[in-house]
Amino acid sequence: MKVGIVGAGIAGLSAGRELQKQGHQAVLFEKSRGPGGRCATRRRGDFFWDSGATSILPRGKALEQVILEELPTDELTRITLPVATHENLRVRPGDPRRGGTRYCYQNGMNTLAKLLATGLDIRPEVSVDAIEKLGESFKIAGEIFDAVILTCPIPQTSLLLWGMNESRPIGNVRYRPCISVLLGYETPLPETHYFAVLDPEQSHPLTWLSLESNKVPGRPPTLVAQMNRTFSAREYDRADADLVSSVSTYIASLIGNAHAVPAVSDVMRWKYSQPESFADFGQVNPPGSKIILASDGLLGGHLEDAYEVGLKAARMLAL
What superfamily in CATH does domain 2-318 come from? Predict the structure, then answer.
């Protein structure tokens, strides 16, 4: 069986690996230059940041065995510091809801994507805007496939389904945007008893701050500030410099005035950052279908969820 997979994020890579293990041919189409989706690392000179997912919290799901037993572990790092919380930028003890062993990679989270992509047939910089249904087959970017797995966010998946005259019960899925502000400094970050700070109530604009060089000793002094839904929606089109200036005031309050002005900065905008409501995988994917949806809107927005839904999609097709 030859399967076309739209999207080479973690779900697409998971599906491709599983299909390949079972002796099928999988071709992944990815609109970006490389695989990974939100498992991304941004670089500017000697500075780099995990600009999407800043760590892996596998919670015993399939991805845990993959990173510990199937993939090379020479760059895999266990994060030893916990996650703290903040209430209006006042740091509080760790949130027990964020417990569990976390991992990342020494030179960036996109290392995971590169490792998962090894040996897969990935077509980068190919934007799939339509899929042609030809009887029992499908045509993607001029190639014919026996089945299709759609891993892109639900709004994009809906357009592809509409073009094939397909309908699935996914209208309730909603996403929130997220602005990630990436900051780098010439001076080291202060030592802390945590590697990240979370606002569990999501009421402050700064919902998550990852101290990247405290997370992984040896990294350059860098921070990743992820903003909450309200801020991100309201300020989505605001100029990068203005965003950096606003976020830097929060950083100064949280970790001190010595880091009020970054040496370098960047901004990432994630339009479909996290699903806020979900559709049921089994209801969305009826038995016998050759069009399988494997979006994060069917299970969860974390890396371990994305890997899980990709596995489910591949195994459903391979039955």
Answer: FAD/NAD(P)-binding domain (3.50.50.60)
